[in-house]
Amino acid sequence: MMEIKQQEVYVMQLVRYFIEQQDYQMVIVQNSKNDIWLANVDQPQYPIIRLCAESEGQQFFDRDYIKEVYERICEQLQIAKPLLMIQTSPLAETIQWEQAEVVSILPNAQVPSKIAQVFHGIEQVVHSVNNADQEIKTIGKRIRDVQLERQKQLLRSLRQPPRAFWIIMALSLLLFALTTYVSLSGSDIYQGVLLGGAYYKPSMMAAYEYWRFFTAPFAHYSLFQLLIDLYVLYLLAKSVDTFYPHKLFLIFMIASLCGYGVSYIGVDNELAFGMVPGLLGIWGAYSVAIFAKKMMRIPPIKSAYIRSVLVIAILLLAPGISYLGVLAGFTAGVLCGIVLSDEAICKQLRPHVLIAAAILAGGLCWYQVNRNQMISNRSETLDSKLIKAYENIGLHDYAKWVEGQINTFYEEGK
What we know:
This protein is of the alpha/beta class. Helix content is 64%, strand content 7%. The protein contains 17 helices and seven strands. It has helices spanning 2-22, 56-60, 63-77, 113-118, 132-159, 163-184, 189-195, 201-207, 212-215, 223-243, 248-266, 276-292, 299-315, 323-340, 344-370, 380-392, 396-413, and strands at residues 25-27, 35-39, 48-52, 83-87, 100-104, 199-200, 271-272. The strands form two sheets. Strands 1-2-3-4-5 form a five-stranded mixed β-sheet, sandwiched between helices. Strands 6-7 form a two-stranded antiparallel sheet. Strand 1 and strand 2 (35-39) form a beta hairpin. The radius of gyration is 30 Å and the shape is elongated. The termini are far apart.
């Protein structure tokens, strides 16, 4: 009886090692046969491990049972890697099985070099103890504490959006404060949003204000529009940062620049502002992750995704939207999702996507260079509001220069 207890201690010592030092999680298996299953989707060699204290003649090598559980875990986690089976019985014999690697780990016994290279320090984990029952209780409590702390960390991370969210919000609030200040100082809201960095093609072409490509995503017409954009960003940010860690701001800016850039090429004259192209890009990357990981089969995730579709549909009703820019932003987000994803299908598509993106970008640049650069439908009202906005904050010389540039631009186009 004592021998069996020692074997169970070895298993628990290994479980603690894998959970504490290798970031594995325990997998609950119905009707388990005195074994413990662990999983870590980020472990490239052995994402699934089975530990058992029984010898070969007992429960260790029930192939049908092992295959069923292993395939179920693979399907749930969307992985396809060899199973690592670890046995701690001194009575176990060497087993050959093409679907798994089977090793024995015992005190004072040599660990296979391949396993030791992947799991550093594992050869020092297993050791005999005087009080097996107390050791198992101590290890069990430690494992529960570690898992509880990880759950708390996960909940904290889910409640708190990533840093990129706060950066985008801060920039948007800063520009909106400028917009509001200009609007309340005797100007109207259009003067405020133009001065706040909105996309306005005539000033970009005539006065070379290309900085508007970078400020337009953070410019907003009203507090209501700003709050709606921030709310949608908040909903998407946590999920996207989970799938693409620390890439949220990158995806947002690429999608925004592509959205307003394509509007610059394809739309004659337009005043546009807001996060919508960038938000559609984030949603595009989120869609790639959901479908690449085949997560639509999970009811809660499917429901959340359907809700996101409805939110995006409502978002498209906001003012100041370039619908061509929205389409371009979504496309850019999908391309970013494929390029940044580690899923096998995305890795296969990546070179083709990069080639297609390069061809598309080259075609748009060629079209922009060879098209008529003039703007046919001049908006004198917006032109005058832009100039007046500069004058209201004391930039009289710059306002005169912009006015002259715009007038010259239209006169040359006649």
